[in-house]
Structure to design on (383 residues):
């Protein structure tokens, strides 16, 4: 039971923190609850499919199918996060809050919501497929009783959801006028972390071979394996032993999204903010 | 078309030969063998993990920052390194306390 609890908890936290940030970032956008639920549901269904076809996915592309699949879906998530952030910078944070009253912007808001739903879906799919495979394995081996597996799973799920909800509620305590500044930074870090994770997959597949050396080793201070390490990994892409290429891609993503958000943000947002103050 | 297939088969067989001396880890009854795998340091190497069990496993190494699902009765390949000389732990993430091993880079 404990093994199930721990594995479910760890995976739920990783996906849950992403969902929490997305929830906070889309605060005030009409129908975001539906869209994000749809993302979670899609992710769960996707996770079951990925688990069911794990073997065939792994065998694609000369045995690197799993990495290419993971790197692709995370690449999509990075693009969606980047696009959302730039869009938010351009339209101004208050527009999102007043979305309901702005006819034309509802469609725009929805488009950004769909992007965020995809991000949520990808996060749930990635972590969920591991849970499905693990639980299925336990069921097959039959050593553990189904009941204790379900108990462990539910407690793990509840704990993971609790931590994620706590972070979300913590974010909501930030005054609205600062909230989007904070979530936009969080989203940039989230995207950079995912981009660096893409690099790991491609290195593991032997596709990316440049700068493979490890830059630092902080595994004795904060291990990737610890719960805090896992949480920071999901939030800001923490790695206790990053390679040179990971670092390059991380900071390149960070710089690109920041620069584009700033570039698009200064045009329209400035006069709008003025008009409201 | 036929020639294309033959050529492809030929190239694939050459690649298979070229990788013949790569490293293999076998998973059976939730135990890795060899438990200690020696690899050369400062070289990029390829490890094949064969899962002979009827349940899925996840080959994972926090030390090497690698994780990959191995389907039941499936096999996967993972590239690692170049790494410094040293000892690196690995485990099956689905049985992480009982199914472990070490990779020694010399």
């Amino acid at each position: 039971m404990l093994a199930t609890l721990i594995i479910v908890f760890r995976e739920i936290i990783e996906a849950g923190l992403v969902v929490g940030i997305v929830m906070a970032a889309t605060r005030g956008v009409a129908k975001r609850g539906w869209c994000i639920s749809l993302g979670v549901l899609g992710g769960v269904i996707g996770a079951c499919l990925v688990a069911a076809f794990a073997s065939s996915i792994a065998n694609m592309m000369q045995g690197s199918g799993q990495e290419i699949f993971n790197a692709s879906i995370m690449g999509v998530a990075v693009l969606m996060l980047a696009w959302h952030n730039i869009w938010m910078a351009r339209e101004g944070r208050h527009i999102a809050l007043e979305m309901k009253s702005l006819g034309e912007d509802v469609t725009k808001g929805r488009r950004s919501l769909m992007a965020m739903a995809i991000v949520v879906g990808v996060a749930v799919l990635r972590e969920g497929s591991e849970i499905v495979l693990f639980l299925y394995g336990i069921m097959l081996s039959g050593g553990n009783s189904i009941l204790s597996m379900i108990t462990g799973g539910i407690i793990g799920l509840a704990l993971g959801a609790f931590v994620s909800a706590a972070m979300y509620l913590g974010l909501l305590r930030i005054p609205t006028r600062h909230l989007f500044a904070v979530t936009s930074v969080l989203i940039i870090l989230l995207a950079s972390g995912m981009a660096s994770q893409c690099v790991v997959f491609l290195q593991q597949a032997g596709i990316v071979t440049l700068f493979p050396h490890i830059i630092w080793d902080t595994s004795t201070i904060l291990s990737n394996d610890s719960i805090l390490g896992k949480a920071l990994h999901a939030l800001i892409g923490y790695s206790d032993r990053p390679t040179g290429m990971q670092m390059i891609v991380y900071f390149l993503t960070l710089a690109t999204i920041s620069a584009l958000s700033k570039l698009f943000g200064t045009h329209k947002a400035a006069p709008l903010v003025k008009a409201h103050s | 078309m036929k020639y294309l297939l033959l050529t492809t088969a030929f190239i694939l067989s050459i690649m298979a030969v070229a990788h013949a001396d790569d490293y293999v880890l076998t998973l059976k009854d939730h135990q890795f063998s060899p438990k200690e795998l020696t690899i050369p340091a400062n070289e990029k190497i390829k490890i094949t993990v064969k899962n002979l069990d009827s349940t899925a496993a996840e080959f994972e190494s926090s030390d090497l920052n690698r994780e990959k699902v191995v389907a039941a009765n499936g096999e996967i390949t993972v590239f690692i390194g170049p790494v410094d000389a040293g000892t690196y732990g690995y485990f099956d993430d689905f049985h992480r306390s009982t199914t472990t091993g070490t990779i020694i880079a010399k």
Summary: Chain B has one domain: 22-105. The beta strands of chain B are 23-28, 31-33, 36-39, 45-51, 57-61, 66-70, 75-80, 86-92, 100-105. Confidence is low (pLDDT under 50) at residues 16-20 of chain B.
